[in-house]
Amino acid sequence: MQFTPPLARLIEQFQKLPGIGPKSAQRMAFFVLGMKRDEVQAFADAVIDAKDKVKNCSRCYHLSANDPCEICVNDRRDGNVICVVADSRDVIALERTREFKGRYHVLTGLISPLEGKGPEQLSIRELISRIPDEEIHEVILAINPTIEGDATVLYLNNLIKPLGVKVTRIAFGLPVGADLEYADDVTLTRAMEGRREV
């Protein structure tokens, strides 16, 4: 079907978003056309405002409108423990649990030779410099158990261990409510490896 050019451009822009296919992009475009003009303006202003103001924190690389970010300046957090994550979405997920009381370091990606991402494209150098500067006692690696994640963990472990700092990795295994019979071999193996005393 042929769309009028302004509508076609809007659909095309929505399709650039991750996980949005042609039908979803069309639904979103038609929804926007049904909004009041001031609502559309507020939506567009929010997108531009976020793009202009949200940057990486110069210390931990978490996305924030403040530099240093809100987590880095919070003196109630344990400044001697850093949780290393791939991106800011992981910080948000961990913060939802309200369990971790230390600080973070966002790598801004994972080592992935196929995507042309090596250690020099990540904020690894900055992480290593934080360890002596902030007297870090433990580095927690909260990185997904993928090929890229495992390669990044191995690389970081080889850099951090010689500094005499405790390096841990979060446990992976079965989600709450899952049945053992439906779990894959890798998940079951990780669940066994990550077991703890009760």
Considering the chains and any ligands shown, give keywords for the structure.
single chain, alpha/beta, Dna Topoisomerase Vi A Subunit, Chain: A, domain 2, four-stranded parallel sheet, 6 strands
Architecture overview:
The protein contains seven helices and six strands, in the order H-H-H-E-E-E-H-E-H-E-H-E-H. It has 198 residues and is an alpha/beta fold. The chain has a domain of 96 residues: 3-Layer(aba) Sandwich (Dna Topoisomerase Vi A Subunit, Chain: A, domain 2). A four-stranded parallel sheet has the order 4-3-5-6. A two-stranded antiparallel ribbon has the order 1-2. Helix 1 packs across helix 2. The model has no long low-confidence stretch (mean pLDDT 92).
Summarize the structure.
With 198 residues, the protein is an alpha/beta fold.
Portion in strands = 5-15%
Structural class: alpha/beta
Globular, elongated, flat, extended or rod-shaped: what is the shape? globular
The level 1 CATH classification of the domain at 76-171 is: Alpha Beta
Catalogue the unreliable spans.
none
Strand numbers in spatial order across the main sheet: 4-3-5-6
The level of helicity is 40-55%
Average pLDDT figure: 92
CATH architecture of the domain at 76-171: 3-Layer(aba) Sandwich
N→C terminal distance: 61 Å
Order of helices and strands: HHHEEEHEHEHEH
Question: How does the SSE layout of this entry go?
Answer:
Layout: H1 5-15, H2 22-34, H3 37-53, E1 55-56, E2 63-64, E3 78-85, H4 88-97, E4 102-106, H5 124-133, E5 138-141, H6 147-160, E6 166-169, H7 185-193
Parallel strand pairs: 3-4, 3-5, 5-6
Antiparallel strand pairs: 1-2
Helix pairs in contact: 1-2
